[in-house]
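Schema walkthrough. Field components (list of strings):
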Amino acid sequence: MNRIICVKNVSKVYRIPKSEKGFFKGIKSLVKPNIVEKVALKDVSFEISEGEVVAYIGPNGAGKSTTIKLLTGLLLPTSGHISVKGQDPFQYRKQLAQMTGVLMGQRSNLWWDLPLQDSYDLLRVIYNLDKKTYIEWSRYLIETMGIEDLLSQPVRMLSLGQRMKAEIVSIFIPKPEIVYLDEPTIGLDVVTKQKVIEFLMHINKQFHTTIILTTHDLQDVEKLCKRMILIDKSILKYDGTVSNFIKKYGNMKRVMIKSDSDNVPQLPNDFTLSEQFIDGWEFIYDQSRYDKRDVLAMIAKLENVTSVSFKDPDLSLIIKNMFREDFEHVWDQ
Amino acid sequence: MFGISRGFAYFLASFKISLRYKVNVWLQVLGAVILVSIQYFLWKNIGNNNESLLNGIEVNSIMLYVIFSRLLVFIIPGNGTTSFISQKILKGTISVDLLRPVHIQVSALCYEFGKLLFNSIFILVPSILLSILFLDIPVIKVNIDQFLLFGLSFTLSYLIAFQMSFMIGVFSIWFGNVWGVREFYEALLMIFGGSLIPVSLYPTFFQMIAIYSPFQSIYFTPLTWISNIDHFIDHPILVQVCWLFIFSSLNHFLLRYALRRAVIQGG
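Field assembly_structure (string):
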């Protein structure tokens, strides 16, 4: 497969003028601003091949959106080198825009006051698409996403789910080779989310479109992506397959304890309470330290326990705990 | 060229969006006729009080000037252009436009052209017809040369006003909301640009400042061609070309610097 994106030792440091309180300090900051440096990305390197679907995940403020801005040429890296389709995205932003689709959070690609069909027709003009090809292609996208009924409605009249489906179709109107989706399923209900995921899977399989997806929803990642890149505190922590990640960091086990009592069961300190339910608690623990029988023996000593069950960790559990300071020792091993 | 064919989408969008707000149109026509009437009766009264000449200018010329200046307000780029860019900066949606294969300034200009066409058809022409029908507007003999020069001068003034309003919009990156800058600009346009009354009616001191300001190139210069008022500067169209060059260049450099800052904000 051809390498389509190459990021080599990229760092991005924002230089932000710090506002000063007080009149005289304010005047002084106008003349000599107090600049604060904020590291958004630190020595990040990865490559993405044509047709890959890659999840780019990490907590808020980790540097995900900065990466997308760098890849699309909206920002210039402080150091390092980026190439997209063999070109510098900052220098060739407009040329690359023709073959790139970007969905950035809640920022709309559509015209709020116009019917959806008009927005798509306008995008055809912007991307200079042949009319016949556009008609066939847009019909295909619209039918695949199932939004035929929305075409005559002004965009401002659409619900969040309807609008997000419409937005995703709009991204694919110019037949992009690379698509960046920044949280495409945020705020969507289960059914809409499923439709969006199926649509993306279908397009990727049929047309080998390269998709880079940032999300907090790790179920989406497990369904859609074979590969994931994990970033935290501006540093790349993991780059590889989702299944290997679960294997590598999945030496945890979940134990669900149901009880009649309102008191949290007292277990050793390295049992971390991960979730609380109306009738019980879920703890996670390191399998290499405790055998299942040891855990059952400890629980047997507790009062009012009605049931115990064990579960394997999923991606969301691993990631959730990866960013908990009290569990950092697991990742440092 | 310059992505104009792709920018045509913004022209269509602007025109279609304007069409969806038809009630506004009738109210705007009504407002335009009221504004024209105020100017008409004010200057008619001044003329009736034996003041046939003011600063050496015929009252009829002034009347024609002020009536057209009120109408040009509807088509000369201003608040709309500023909002187009400033709202995108403030809401962070500028990145959507930057990620399209059209230059942001081309898209803003094409969007403005859409409004120009709409306002010309639905506001300017009906307002002029209604004014002619109900008010005894003076007709000044304008030869074809003057009319063509008015066309050229208006085109330049349109582009200068666009560049200046666009620049104010870009200031949002530093100032946030730019309504204060906008109000100040409008005031300067009134006093030095002749959007209210011809600059020639001001005392010499103000006229001197106006000569060296870009504002007179926006309203005063084009309107002098059709109202027979003296331009009071040599080669007014050349001056307009110079101002257009200056503001286009300033915007070019300002954008290069500013947009990098604009996209940093927000995730």
